[in-house]
Write a structure and sequence with these properties.
The protein has 79 residues and is of the alpha+beta class. The protein has one domain: Alpha-Beta Plaits (2-Layer Sandwich), CATH 3.30.70. It contains 2 helices and 4 strands; from the N terminus they run βαββαβ. A 4-stranded antiparallel beta sheet has the order 2-3-1-4, with helices on one face. The longest helix has 9 residues.
Length: 79
């Protein structure tokens, strides 16, 4: 099956990096969630990196918490 490397910025209210990690961990590998403070202090921005077979599942899970922006998707090359 094809695998993809996803990188995107995610804006959420009232959630933590741990909550996002717990929600995404079963859907991919190499998950990184980096907390990036927004200047308004009302929302939190997170930079998310993950390798997954189904990018749409990752985006569907994140959409429950907030808004996705600045998406980059690369296909991983197999052997």
């Amino acid at each position: 099956m094809q695998r993809y490397h996803l990188e995107f910025i995610f804006t959420a209210y009232n959630t933590s990096a741990d909550a996002i990690k717990n929600s995404l961990t079963e859907f991919g590998e190499g998950l990184e969630v980096i907390d990036c403070q927004d200047s308004t202090n009302l929302a939190k921005n997170f930079k998310i990196k993950i390798n997954a077979e189904e990018p749409t599942v990752i985006f569907d899970v994140c959409a429950q918490f907030g808004r996705i922006k600045s998406v980059k998707i690369d296909e991983e090359r197999g052997p």
